[in-house]
Amino acid sequence: MDSVEEKFIQSLIDLPANENCPIRKSLELFSGKWRTWVLFELCKKPAYRFGELRKAIPKITNTMLTTTLRDLEHMGIIERKQFNEIPPHVEYSLTESGYALAPVFIEIAKWADKYLPEETD
Question: What's the pTM value of the predicted model, to 2 decimals?
Answer without folding.
Answer: 0.79
